[in-house]
Amino acid sequence: MVVGLGTGSTVRHLLDVIAERRSAGEWGGVRGIPTSEDTAARAERLGIPLVSLADHPAVDLTIDGADEVDPELRLIKGLGGALLREKVVASVSGRLVIVADASKSVVKLGTLAPLPVEVDRFAAPVLVPFLRALGCEPVRRLRPDGAALVTDGGHHVLDCRFAAGIDDAEALEATLRRRPGIMETGLFLGMASAVVIAAPGGVEVRERAGEG
Q1: 8 Å CB contact between 10 and 103
Q2: Fold entry, domain 115-185
C-alpha cells in the first residue's frame, strides 16, 4: 500500500516502526510519500522505499501528527513547517489518521497553538496587516539562527495567534484562501478520518461519523 508520511516528532516514531517491520520481513509492500524533505531524508536513511504523487496520485492512508484537535476532529497543523505538502497528500488520501498526545486535544481551535499560514515571500509584508485585521497577531517564523524560515516550497510562514481562539474555523479558512499570496493554511477541516489520542490512562480512538 501507499502511505502518506507526515512530518514531525510523531512521524519519526512511525518511520522507526515501518523500518523495524520491514527488517523483520513484514510490510514489504509499503511505499511512502513524504510530506517534507526532512521526512524523505529520514525514510531513505531507514531504507523505506519512497514514491511520488506523479506515480501514485491516490494514497491509501496518511498518518500524521497535529498541533491541535477539536471534538469535531478539526485540526491545526503546520508547526513543523510542512503544512502545504501535508494538506496536498491528505487531500488525496483514502484515510487520514492523526496520532497525538492528550495535550493536543482542545475544545476550541487556536486556544493553545498559533495558526500557521504559509505565504508567498513577495506578499508577506502586505499580508501581515491583512491577517491582523482578522483578529490575530501574525509573527513571521524564524529559524534558530534568526533568519526567516523558508518552507520546502520556498515560502514563509506567519504564525497567527488568536487571543480567544478561532470562533469560526470554516469562515476563517474561506477568507484566507481567497487572499492572493496565501499559499495554504494550517486549518485541516473535515479531513481527518480518525484521531488516536495517547493519554496517561490509555489510548482513545476518535473516528469521524461514517468512518470505520
Answers
A1: no
A2: Alpha-Beta Plaits (3.30.70)
Could you read off the pLDDT of 137-176 as tens digits, one per residue?
Answer: 999 999 999 999 999 999 999 999 999 999 999 999 999 9
Question: pTM for the full model?
Answer: 0.94
Compute the distance between CA of residue 78 and CA of residue 195 in angstroms, rounded to an integer.
Answer: 17
Residue 60, C-alpha cell as written in the block: 491509501
C-alpha grid cell for residue 77?
A: 497543523
Write down the catalytic residue from 86, 118, 173, 184. 86
Catalytic residue status for 44: no
- Is residue 170 within 8 Å of residue 70, measured between CB atoms? no
- Give the integer Cα–Cα distance in Å for 86 and 37: 12
d(CA 30, CA 119): 33
Domain locations along the chain = 2-103+189-203, 115-185
Alpha-carbon separation of residue 121 from 19, 26, 150, 161, 180 (angstroms): 37, 44, 9, 20, 12
The CATH architecture to which 2-103+189-203 belongs is 3-Layer(aba) Sandwich (3.40)
Residue 190 gets the label, from left (phi > 0), alpha (psi -120 to 50) or beta, of: left
